[in-house]
Sequence to fold (748 residues):
Amino acid sequence: MAEVVLESIYKRFGNVTAVKDFSLNIADEEFMVFVGPSGCGKTTTLRMIAGLEEISDGVLKIGDRVVNDVPPKDRDIAMVFQNYALYPHMNVHQNMSFGLRLRKTPKADIERRVGEAAKLLQIDHLLERRPRELSGGQRQRVALGRAIVREPKVFLMDEPLSNLDAKLRVEMRASISKLHRRLGVTTVYVTHDQVEAMTMGTRIVVMKDGLIQQVDSPINLYDKPVNKFVAGFMGSPAMNFLLGNVQNGHLKSPQFDLAPSGDLAPKLKALEGKKVYVGIRPENLGLRGMSAIEEGDNIIKAQVEVVEPLGAETHILASVGGDQTLVARVDSHAQVAAGDQIDLLADLGFLHVFDMESEANLRYT
Amino acid sequence: MSRRVPGLHITWGRLLTHASLAVLVVIWTVPTLGLFVSSLRDKDQLIVSGWWTAFSTTERSAAGRINARDAVEVDGLHVVEGNFLEDPRRSIVSYGVSQTALGAFAPGETIDLEGTAFTLNEDGSYRWVSEEPFPEGARHRIFHIMAIPPTFALTNYREVLASESIDRAFINTFTVTIPATLIPILIAAFAAYAFAWMKFPGRQWLFALVVGLLVVPLQMSLIPLLRMYNDIGATFGVPSKTYLGIWLAHTGFGLPLAIYLLRNYIGGLPRDIIESAQLDGASHFDIFIRLILPLSVPALASFAIFQFLWVWNDLLVALVFLGKDDDQIVLTSRLRELLGSRGDNWEILTSSAFISILVPLMVFFALQRYFVRGLLAGSVKGG
Fold:
């Protein structure tokens, strides 16, 4: 068990800097998720922690030890790869015990650990099989098992669920979370799927272009995104962004006139006369007359384009002024049809305003 | 070309493809078939007719001599008897007394030879009868056409296999071939792993250099190589023609291709597997022995076949690096000697070709399953 500390880590490939000034403290027993679009540097960072990539600059500590120049095998970590990376010519038992055998672990110890891990992952009946005789989900369990038997200080997981089908992914998501709770091993988990990040992480690192955008707990990331990227990345359907002008403390466009209250109002004064992005999540919009949101300087006029009834709720895709679109998440019994002109009420308490240039969230600047 | 032949799931296009494939296969295999048929034929026939005539009865003209010296007196008649045909399966088609009149008489017909009677029967037996004693020195040549039914025999093979020290030559060839196949594979596998998975400066350049060595022609470098070997050998008191020398020579000539082939294969193994092994605590040597070698069996087998065939069939390198004494002469060299300096012993050429093909064929069939089997199945997604 150990904490992992990254101090302004850089990774350069020739002229390209893949990871910039990455600083993070991963606490002991924490489940840390790196999330971001492809090419954001999350996997590179993970591979630096694993020792598979050299660290161009900065300091990496696992436990209390600086491990920049320690080879992967001496870092006391185990990694689960996206493609499982099982050894095709070995059976499940040999796959799981490979690392232990290399480390000359006593035979009885190997048997005990493999047996325990196999039982934990419910693969104890597959020990004699070769990887090619297993299904995708079983292979992934074997890959997890191979990491578990090593009893490492840190687990590294590189998009381990991305090759599984949707149903299996939900199942494995839960089992990995359970596993983490049970073993209590510090885990770093890379994914591009914000749902995985939200459901599994104790904390989430959102990355973009090699830079950390925000590090926080899932719910804080969702409620308090520091910039437009984080706000748009977390949540599905994504947050709506509308262009508006700041006039007399109101956010205005021909289709809406919103009067933010509370701590946002004084900050808007500084941007008087400027254009800003107005951000509002789909669930913070309601149909007039059918929503708990109170009316009062919070109407957005829109034209319905598509209605998507999902059963429990309905998504309305609507156009605002012809050139902008938004999604509203409303009660499934809403009576709307494509082409209708509707008035949407915005919950002003959950309104976000982003600067045009820096894209920073005005609430947290 | 998508019109369908009624009732069959073939299109004209596929038909054409299959037809051309069949034609190619025939063109490709017919010479070997011819060689095989020839090897089973009689050596006299082999010289005068092509192998494709071997399955039908052929006709050949020949001449037989009859001599009054052999005459015996039977019941007051002077008789010369005998048979022109050595093989009872042959038969006489027609005969005559001059080379231009081969078809003059049918077998069984009795003709007049200067006052004596001569009969040649279909089975080749003849009878020459005279009431008077034959004049001193009377003799004739009887020209005839004989029909030869298809004959196949293993005599050619017997001749080659029974020839002096052919068994020894077989052993010598094995002595050359097995180490000359294993040594380069071992070296090349190590080199290929290093080129594929170990990071060191100048790796790409070195690899390009190794591949570039493929262009060095063997014929040009043989003699300089031999001299170099001899010079180095002289300092250690090693004789000039040894098995070690030819092993090293074949290793040297085989390595560039081997490294090239194996590097491409080993470089294509999934990176994840190797990295996973690194995290599991494997050193480069562990990875090589426990992962790379077992997973590269198909590539190793293909190259083993290449190298084995090349060394087995080699004559040139063996002539340069090995002596021609019994303890060193290889099969190809021995067979060449059997052929004679004028290369006119056709029947030996054909049968020895098949005898020397035998071992490579066995090697091929023993290893070919490795080409087909996908060893990587199940290791990574889609693998």
Notes: DSSP finds nine helices and 20 strands in chain A. The CA atoms of residues 295 and 345 of chain A lie 7 Å apart. The mean pLDDT of chain A is 92. Chain A touches chain B through 32 residues (CB under 8 Å).
